[in-house]
Automatic annotation (TrEMBL):
Protein name: Adapter protein MecA
A Pfam family that the UniProt record links to this protein: MecA
InterPro entries named among the record's database cross-references: MecA_C_sf, Neg-reg_MecA
Family (UniProt): Belongs to the MecA family.
GO molecular function annotation: protein-macromolecule adaptor activity
Self-association and partners: Homodimer.
NCBIfam families documented for this protein: PRK02899.1
Protein species of origin: Aeribacillus pallidus
Function: Enables the recognition and targeting of unfolded and aggregated proteins to the ClpC protease or to other proteins involved in proteolysis. Acts negatively in the development of competence by binding ComK and recruiting it to the ClpCP protease. When overexpressed, inhibits sporulation. Also involved in Spx degradation by ClpC.
Encoding gene (name): mecA
Keywords per UniProt: Competence, Sporulation
Gene3D superfamilies: 3.30.70.1950
Written domain comment of the UniProt record: The N-terminal domain has binding sites for ComK and probably for unfolded/aggregated proteins; the C-terminal domain interacts with ClpC.
Keyword Protein biosynthesis: no
Amino acid sequence: MRLERLNHNKIKIFLTLDDLSDRGLTKEDLWNNSLKVHQLFREMINEASEELDFHANGSIAVEVYSLKAQGMVIIVSKNNDEELEDEFLDDYIEMQVKVDEHQDILYEFLNFEDVLDLAKVLQRFEITEGALYSYQGRYYLLFDDISKIETEHLVAILAEYGTPTHMTTHRLHEYGKLLIKDHAVRLLNDYFS
């Protein structure tokens, strides 16, 4: 689990599928408003309180973005209500949970050579799609509209060359530089093989 403070009343939590599994949960469990899910959120808030000095009492909004093969990004926003006394809020957290599933697969690569090596392997499996971005000295391959059969193979191969990223596609679109818009794998092989 990775934690990041976005501003004074908002944090981002990235959970991998392994993090969920270690806690005895699956992505499907998050769709249900169960006690296990509330315990997970309470644990995350407690950890954020210790690591980021993020104290959430009272009402918080929890937005869960499920990333197809990587895990989930969770945005927690606290609603500061100055009228309520802190002493009454120690054990009180009211959660409003919104769950959204993204079908995109996004992986991060440390250098361009890793992306080129990956493209050669993906071509052998007739995977030619993808969009290539750069952001803060790293490279990102974004895949969408991948069939379920391809997804399992694709994620296994991507994991050998890169790492799943906690960055959202919205942030990448907004701040990243688009290098290749469509069929990035095919174009990388055409130009660099």
